[in-house]
Amino acid sequence: MKHQEILFSNDINSAINKAVEGVEFNRLFILVDVNVDQFVMPFLADNVNIKGAFKILIKAGDVNKNLESLSYIWKQLVEAGATRHSLLLNIGGGMITDIGGFAASTFKRGIKFFNIPTTLLGAVDAAVGGKTGINFNSLKNELGAFREAEAVIISTKFFDTLPLSEIKSGYAEMLKHGLLSSEYSFSHLLDYDFNNPNHDMLLKLLQESVEVKRKVVADDPFEKGIRRALNLGHTVGHAFESTAMQRFEPISHGYAVAWGMLVELILSNMILKFDSNILNVYARFVNENYGVFHITCDDYDALIELMHHDKKSNHGELNFSLLKAVGDVKINCEVSSDDVKVALDIYRDMLHI
User: Fold this and answer.
1) The dihedral of CA 288, 235, 325, 336: what is its sign?
2) Which of 52, 201, 275, 340 has its CA 20 to 30 A from that of 37?
3) Please, which residues have CB within 8 angstroms of residue 45's CB and are 6 or more apart in sequence?
4) What count of other Cβ atoms lies within 10 Å of the Cβ of residue 39?
5) 3-class SS at 105?
6) Are 217 and 3 a contacting pair, CB within 8 Å?
7) Which residues pair with 224 in a beta bridge?
8) Separation between Cα atoms, residue 250 and residue 232, nearest integer Å
9) How distant, in Å, are the alpha carbons of 264, 288, 310, 322 from that of 279?
10) Spatial separation of the C-alpha atoms in residues 193 and 170, rounded to whole Å
């Protein structure tokens, strides 16, 4: 997997021009959803390098990260005359970079693409690291491929268009990277004031967070080993997301990860003696900033069944990435269903459900 170029800049048009001019292609395509087209594309209206691009427009929301949307993207590329030498710019949140990366990876066995995330979650998670995919059969990211973008262009300029809930959604992935890094990094993240946002500070924190992910991905690009550390919070979080989709009440990926990390830190405390003081601090932060995902004991069996579908599971076992301490991750931790049920009980108690 080639080294991925990541540009951090709030001069977004210049950054796009620099990246586009550095790549050979015969035709330029842009993939956006309806929300990005309305609220973000005006920022890029004067960009000389993308004015003549062919725009592919799809519906917004993770529920539309599906086979139907993927097929539509392929069809648009075919009808507009895309070739193996074309370039696709995925401009949007994680849904767009996931599905756009998968479309580019599979169209004519692979065309070049850039990711330009317009959400904090997209910037810190989906746009970086080479994972692409779609949801299928009510399962999150069930179909996909590993393929890095030629370049990722990250800017906080777009975040002014986002509600606070979207900022918090992306911040959950940054908290995960902090937990994988050091107590200093983690505590520093807990000090950020969402009510008085500072985009310069956020860009600095974002660069540090992306660097944590880049280092892990470089060591294990195809998730055969240590990259599974990045799944902290995701085994439970994806089960929460799938449950929410089945309820026809979809939730943000970042919020699901925030709640999922709480459950998995509880498991870390139960199994690896993770510091209960840090667990309690994190639980308070989640309660104050993310609220709760409501479950009852009647949901446990269905949630555990969804966890069995997790991509870390080799033989249907419940497989988690857990923490012995902040910065000390243990991958491939097999956990019993009974322990997961206890952790879900404690999760409900800690969030006062």
Assistant:
1) positive
2) 201
3) none
4) 14
5) helix
6) no
7) none
8) 21
9) 10, 14, 24, 13
10) 14
Alpha-carbon gap, residue 100 to 200, rounded angstroms? 29
**Which amino acid is it at 116?**
I
Encoded amino acid at 193, one letter: D
Lowest mean pLDDT among 75-79, 84-88, 161-165: 161-165
How buried is 47 (Cβ within 10 angstroms: 0-12 exposed, 13-18 middle, 19+ buried)? middle
Torsion of CA 257, 199, 53, 95, to 10 degrees: 10
Residue 1 predicted with pLDDT over 50: no
What is d(CA 227, CA 208) in angstroms, rounded to the nearest whole number?
17
DSSP 108: G
| Tokens representing residue 265 in the block | 């830190």
Tokens of 324: 């012995």
Alpha helices, DSSP H only, in the chain?
Answer: 12-21, 34-39, 67-79, 94-106, 120-121, 164-181, 183-190, 199-219, 234-246, 253-272, 276-289, 300-308, 337-350
Region 119-125 average pLDDT: 88
End-to-end CA distance of the chain: 45
Quote the radius of gyration of the chain (alpha carbons, Å). Answer: 20
Which pLDDT score, from 0 to 100, does residue 3 have? 63
- Give the pair of three-digit tokens for residue 203: 């860009």
Taking the C-alpha atoms of residue 353 and residue 351, their distance in angstroms, rounded to an integer, is 6
